[in-house]
Amino acid sequence: MTATLVSTDLPFPLRVRGKVRDVYDLGDALLMVATDRVSAFDVVMPTPVPRKGEVLTLISAWWFARTADLVPNHVLSVDPDQIARRYPALAPHRDSWARRSMLCRKLRPFPVECVVRGYLSGSAWKEYREQGTLAGEPLPAGLRESDRLDSPLFSPATKAESGHDENIPFDRMREIVGGDAADRLRDASLAVYARGREIAAESDIIIADTKFEFGTDTDGTIRLMDEVLTPDSSRFWPREAYAPGRGQPSLDKQPLRDWLETLVESGQWDKTPPGPELPPYVVEETSRRYQDAFRRLTGMALDDFPLADPGAGR
Asked: What pTM did the predictor assign?
């Protein structure tokens, strides 16, 4: 298996170490390094997944390039040569950040997750099954798990420092960020999701739902940030296996979740930290799923990604 990256130690101030990303303050920009850490059920596992960080960074760069006409974004570069020239102190550490790092503008994030749902799945299905609503808003009766919604729904959520985000009504989002900003974030989210769903359909991938994050730069411009339409932030379903009325196979870390569920059912783990060590076959299959999703969507192998021009290719 390819060498993995669990943590980084770069010669710049570490702003945050999240579940997956280490974010460094370079002074006039940020460096977002996607490690190979993997989480499930909001618990970071002790075993990394090879090349996962590369997939998350480069698939985001691919999407940012294909949605920039809809909404500006925070990306400055994913080209290691360009990044090393601009910040020479990073050059000696290149092996730990190249191909998995995104140089980004500094933004002031909005304190909400902008979720768009095209299909009824996950927490949305759970709420609908129990109450017939989504974030408190009524949905038509008689929907099944994984049903396609007539129109994609914007379903904002609060950002949780730990645990699960909480779905909130749009009116609550307007109170948090202001009415004008809420409207603009909703419209941008729906537009990017529509573009993504259209492009993914060409590869027979269904994007069931996704979440976006936005921030503002110093002149007040709203920009799309963090990651976009990745297997971590979205549900990717293979079209050939889609059948409403049940959960769907997905092009992400499903092998990991399935294996963990067997531990939960047998009483060996209770979905709280620390996570269990992962067996090699689960790690290998999860890595393969991430790389297959990348290849299927972009039409290229991970090693062939045009770092200097993420907009190239199909």
From this structure: 0.94
